[in-house]
Amino acid sequence: MFAYQESLERVDLAFSDRHDGESTGPWASLNLGASNGDDGETVARNLRAAVQALGGDPERAWLMRQVHGRDVHVVTGDDPARPAPEADALVTSVPGAVLVVRVADCVPVVLADDRAAVVGVVHAGRKGVVLDVATAAVEAMRALGAGEIRAWVGPRACGRCYEVPETMRDDVARQVARTWSETRWGTPALDLPAGVAGQLQAAGVEVHDLADDHAMCTIEGEKDYFSYRRQGERSGRLAGLVRVRG
Ligand SMILES: [Zn+2]
Asked: What structural domains and CATH numbers belong to the chain?
């Protein structure tokens, strides 16, 4: 169910893997995304199971319609907006609200100030890194009273696997230098998690890249993760989840 899970004084957070869900075929089994051909009701049951495994109430799970932008949605009410807000980050100080970011190769980030009980999630793909959506989320958390923010960077394509055309590498690295990378086989690549981590550190956030201690590359980890690069349109989706305990 979870590739990583941690409980702080007031905050629970986790990143899902592909195990212990109900989906079959390319989505087997804990697919948390519905725009890839999988059955919507099955995905909804998977989502409920993941939120409950975190200790949360599935009726209070906030999803996003992620568009590779820089908008942050501030969750203020008890009932999740329907349809889900169009955004690439969610932040809140509302106890019990479960924030969910969904990815397959893009970088999922969970943010928390445990003492202030303010949390967030970020979806950072190539465009999100260039737009620095991570810093936008940090600023939105500070506006809610967050001080010392920590970040957890979860399962994503690593900088040794995420191959791109040379012109694209040059373009992105010119804007975010730490993304410059090379694949294991010597071709141009982007290290998006390194780029996000640098942006968060520059914003004064303490970063825990879970890949430092766990296998977290979605492209390499076929047994445990979904990957858009590896599976294409029918790739399942993983999630990062966080909540302030209600
Ligand atoms: Zn890799």
From this structure: 2-244 (3.60.140.10)
